[in-house]
Amino acid sequence: MQQQSPRPADALAVRGLTRTYGTGPNAVRALDAIDLAFAEGSFTAVMGPSGSGKSTFLNCAAGVEQPTSGDVVVAGQDISGWSEARRTAFRRRHVGIVFQGFHLVPYLTAAQNVGLPLRLEGRRPDRQHVARLLARVGLADRAGHLPGELSGGQQQRVAVARALVAVPAVLLADEPTGALDTSSARDVLRLLRSSVDELGQTVVMVTHDPVAAAYADSVVFLVDGRVAGWMSRPTAEAVAGQLARLDDLAGAAVAS
């Protein structure tokens, strides 16, 4: 009998993840008992309409927000009950975040921005490691440039390098191509894809773009704070078709 390969471990998992804002009759449940797991070395896109809970999910997964109930497990550690200070320290070492708006420090060079998470943790960045990351994102010759001297696509690639500098367990990307032109967006998506294929990185990306989602291994659809569907090996056409059926997805979420 042929022995099966072991299943990859989960870099990120959430169980019964619930996040409620407000109290009483005006309370809003942004996330409603979500169960999801993301294996090491996987690339997952998270999609859904505005207000579906995508950004709240990412914030809870990153430890930026504390869930109302449920568990968030990153690199084998359940961080959901930790203090904000402890979650922040953990996030700097184990979670990389790429924002739509880049969030680079304007008076630091590209190299200094990449090394910043390590400095915030009290570690001195390895110059060779930072240089390798900048070379990997195609910016070896821009290490000494300030963000204002870089294009939007170049700034986002610096942000990706910064997110990878601590070799995190998981990289979370919040609409990373939303502010980019088509060519720059393609470059960033290829970079995220290569970080999975070549570095074994785990990427979870919130996006509204079916073309961006097609770079992922799978797509999770959220509707009204619930998981309403899952698609493996997505194509832009298949994702667009599923998004057009959001009413059906919402019905399936309620039924489950």
From TrEMBL:
Keywords of the record: ATP-binding, Nucleotide-binding, Transport
Domain annotation ABC transporter: ranges: 12-249
Source organism, top-level taxon: Bacteria
SUPFAM superfamilies assigned: P-loop containing nucleoside triphosphate hydrolases
Gene3D superfamilies given in the database record: P-loop containing nucleotide triphosphate hydrolases
SMART domains in the record: AAA
GO molecular function, one term: ATP binding
Pfam families recorded: ABC_tran (PF00005)
Protein name: ABC transporter ATP-binding protein
Organism of derivation: Motilibacter deserti
